[in-house]
Amino acid sequence: MAGSSSSWLLPLFVQVVMMKVGLSSASELTFELPDNAKQCFYEDITIGTKCTLEFQVVTGGHYDVDCRLEDPEGTVLYKEMKKQYDSFTFSAARNGTYKFCFSNEFSTFTHKTVYFDFQVGDDPPLFPNENRVTALTQMESACVSIHEALKSVMDYQTHFRLREAQGRSRAEDLNSRVAFWSVGEALILLVVSVSQVLLLRSFFSDRKTTTTRMGS
Amino acid sequence: MEMKTLVSCVGFLLLFVWLSPSQALYFHIGETEKKCFIEEIPDETMVIGRYRTQLWDKQAGSFLPSTPGLGMHVEIKDPETKVILSRQYGSDGRFTFTSHTPGEHQICLHSNSTKMALFAGGKLRVHLDIQVGEHTNNYPEIAAKDKLTELQLRVRQLLDQVEQIQKEQNYQRYREERFRMTSESTNQRVLWWSIAQTVILIITGIWQMKHLKSFFEAKKLV
């Protein structure tokens, strides 16, 4: 009984330790950035970890945002102004807190919705093969490559969903604008035509008094 | 010997779980500031959110490791802006929900703790980790529960991923239908609007001429 339970306990323990030491993490968030606002996120990264920051603007204005990534010393690793979508990979050269900020300070009245995906390190292995000295079997390496391919499929799906959300929000905007515009224009037309007639009538009413005076 | 390693492993595990800080993204939040995150997910998808808060200590000039009595209010709204979860959690919390309608869910966090008023210039550091769909599965736990071999576990992971992809594609079909309906509606509206405009224009033109003609005839100018 002890044998079978310890066979899974050791890998579980190693996995938890690895997760706690922070060798890998992936954070994917979508948040709203109000106009003239800046939002910063921080993460503690150990030296030598390969990290990727990907962001995309989902809704708002011209779909652009300023992005800036700084290392613990304050050195700017990545800085782009008014970018719609970008992906940046870097290797952590120092231990410490890395900071990345999204800024909408250039915009006066448009709120932006920004999606970002910050991947630190590789994914934790499913089963840390502590006792394995041989390489993975063919089946297992096939599983690993399928897993990687599916991960990239899901990544593409996410980006596609965001682009579609962009298009859809524009279409819905257009729809409501057309509704308001048509009602508004019909009203304006009626008001203008009635007031034209009234104004014209008022011109002729004045002239009538002058003609009668001249006649007499 | 085996029992000893087992016990020491379990002991270490518990120690690590309780003592070491979890590595996650963090950000700063003001006193009564509300931070909202949007998750656009298909239906029947599980979402697990974990957060940890730290309060800025002005005297020490750093963040306290943990402050009891500090609370965060978590509010989750579904795509129809109906509140599906609205609860107060402690300084460390874990919330979970499963979506029943596909769409944009909004997860809002704000601190309504009065303790912050004691620390002037209260800045709160919030560590946040939101996992969606198949990322919520804890594979070692599943392996232990169902007694799967390594290969079986890998295949199970692939199955979960494929299921998530299927759900997302289904959701994509629903979204595309909505988009198409919106475009069709815009098309119809533009058509009706242009016809109505033309009709209104012609009618008002005719009315204007008729009215003015009768007006001038009355004034004996025509």
From TrEMBL, chain A:
Q: How does it sit in the membrane?
A: Single-pass type I membrane protein
Domain of life the protein comes from:
Eukaryota
Could you tell me where this protein is found in the cell?
Answer: Cytoplasmic vesicle, COPI-coated vesicle membrane; Cytoplasmic vesicle, COPII-coated vesicle membrane; Endoplasmic reticulum membrane; Endoplasmic reticulum-Golgi intermediate compartment membrane
Q: What is this protein called?
A: Transmembrane emp24 domain-containing protein 7
The record lists the membrane-crossing segments as 178-204
In terms of InterPro entries, this protein maps to: Emp24-like (IPR015720), GOLD_dom (IPR009038), GOLD_dom_sf (IPR036598)
Any one Pfam family match given in the protein's UniProt record, by short name: EMP24_GP25L
In which organism is this protein found?
A: Danio rerio
What Gene Ontology terms describe where this protein resides (cellular component)?
COPI-coated vesicle membrane; COPII-coated ER to Golgi transport vesicle; endoplasmic reticulum; endoplasmic reticulum membrane; endoplasmic reticulum-Golgi intermediate compartment; endoplasmic reticulum-Golgi intermediate compartment membrane; ER to Golgi transport vesicle membrane; Golgi apparatus
Automatic annotation (TrEMBL), chain B:
* Signal peptide positions on this chain: 1-24
Which membrane topology describes this protein?
Answer: Single-pass type I membrane protein
- PROSITE patterns associated with the record: GOLD
* Keyword Membrane (UniProt): yes
Cellular component terms, GO, for this chain's entry? endoplasmic reticulum membrane
Q: Which UniProt keywords apply?
A: Endoplasmic reticulum, Membrane, Signal, Transmembrane, Transmembrane helix
Q: Where in the cell is it found?
A: Endoplasmic reticulum membrane; Membrane
| Annotated TM spans | 190-209
InterPro entries assigned: Emp24-like, GOLD_dom
Query: Mainly localized where?
Result: endoplasmic reticulum
Pfam families assigned = EMP24_GP25L
Whether Membrane counts among this entry's keywords is yes
Domain GOLD stretches: 34-155
Where would one find coiled-coil regions in this protein? none
Q: Which family does it belong to?
A: Belongs to the EMP24/GP25L family.
The name this protein goes by in its record: Transmembrane emp24 domain-containing protein 4 precursor
Source species: Danio rerio
Q: What is the lineage of its organism?
A: Eukaryota, Metazoa, Chordata, Craniata, Vertebrata
